[in-house]
């Protein structure tokens, strides 16, 4: 059974750095084609894709947040970490991590099978 | 403003059929696979459709997906009150080299 669980602070002050951890089980991030992605959802808003790290340590980021995000993995611990610098109240959201069960990139584009499953999400509030 | 465009809301009566559209461009839907997600109130999204029209195990065949050109469609037949949820499409955008989601569609089963 594949499971993911997000952890991190529930409250962060503006300008601080937010660090979120996704602990997963039931699959290995060293398996070809496997990857983990972060997605967030502000209150009452749509899903917003943030970042992805694949089995080969390649990383991809939202163009609008690229300068503030870093995604990394610890394969031995089955964890993926997302850091977001200089947070602002607009970053208040529920943050989800999700597995992508098949992911490949060519010189032209990337194939993403789907985000499945998702963690339960962690609600993060940015406020002073 | 989402890269993929979905209608904000759709509604239909129990037992009826509904379709939800997802419109994009050649840099995303036109040249990549589409997936669909159901988000019930207060819960994490769940994968309904991947690779445009494939259902993961456990997803009933009342849910279907299709793609034509730069648009994709989610179909739900035999609507039940338990289908009331927000539905999202997603794909990869080649120009952005990033994942993208639609703005979401709220389904009301009257």
How would you sum up this structure, described in words?
- The complex is a heterodimer of chains A (128) and B (110).
- In chain A, 0% of the residues lie in helices and 53% in strands.
- By secondary structure, chain A is mostly beta strands.
- In chain A, the strands form three sheets. In chain A, strands 2, 4, 5, 6, 9, 12 and 13 form a seven-stranded mixed beta sheet that branches. In chain A, strands 1-3-8-7 form a four-stranded antiparallel beta sheet, with no helix packed on it. Chain A has a two-stranded antiparallel sheet with strand order 10-11.
- Chain B is an all-beta fold.
- In chain B, the strands form two sheets. In chain B, strands 1, 3, 4, 7, 8 and 9 form a six-stranded mixed beta sheet that branches. In chain B, strands 2-6-5 form a three-stranded antiparallel beta sheet, with no helix packed on it.
- The interface between A and B is medium-sized, with 26 and 29 residues.
Produce the secondary structure layout.
The complex is a heterodimer of chains A (128) and B (110).
Chain A (H helix, E strand, L loop, with lengths): L2 E5 L3 E2 L5 E8 L9 E7 L5 E8 L4 E3 L7 E6 L4 E6 L8 E8 L2 E3 L4 E3 L2 E4 L3 E5 L2
Parallel strand pairs in A: 2-13
Antiparallel strand pairs in A: 1-3, 3-8, 4-5, 4-9, 5-6, 7-8, 9-12, 9-13, 10-11
Chain B lengths: L8 E4 L5 E6 L11 E5 L6 E4 L13 E6 L2 E6 L8 E9 L4 E4 L3 E5 L1
Parallel strand pairs in B: 1-9
Antiparallel strand pairs in B: 2-6, 3-4, 3-7, 5-6, 7-8, 7-9
């Amino acid at each position: 059974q594949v499971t993911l669980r997000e952890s991190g602070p529930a409250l962060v002050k503006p300008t601080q750095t937010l660090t979120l951890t996704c602990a997963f089980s039931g699959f290995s991030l060293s398996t070809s084609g496997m990857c983990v992605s972060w997605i967030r959802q502000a209150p009452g808003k749509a899903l917003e894709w943030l970042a992805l790290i694949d089995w080969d340590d390649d990383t991809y980021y939202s163009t609008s947040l690229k300068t503030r995000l870093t995604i990394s993995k610890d394969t031995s611990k089955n964890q993926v970490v997302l850091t977001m610098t200089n947070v602002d109240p607009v970053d208040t959201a529920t943050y989800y991590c999700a597995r992508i069960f098949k992911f490949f990139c060519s010189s032209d584009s990337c194939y993403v099978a789907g985000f499945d499953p998702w963690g339960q999400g962690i609600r993060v509030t940015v406020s002073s | 403003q989402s890269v993929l465009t979905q209608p904000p809301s759709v509604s239909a009566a129990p037992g009826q059929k509904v379709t939800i559209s997802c419109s994009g461009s050649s840099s995303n839907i036109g040249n990549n696979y589409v997936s669909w997600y159901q988000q019930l109130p207060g819960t994490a999204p769940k994968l309904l459709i991947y690779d445009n029209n494939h259902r993961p195990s456990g997803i009933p065949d009342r849910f279907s997906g299709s793609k034509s050109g730069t648009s994709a469609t989610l179909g739900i037949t035999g609507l039940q009150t338990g289908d009331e949820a927000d539905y999202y499409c997603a794909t990869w955008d080649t120009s952005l080299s990033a994942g993208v989601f639609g703005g979401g569609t709220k389904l009301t089963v009257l």
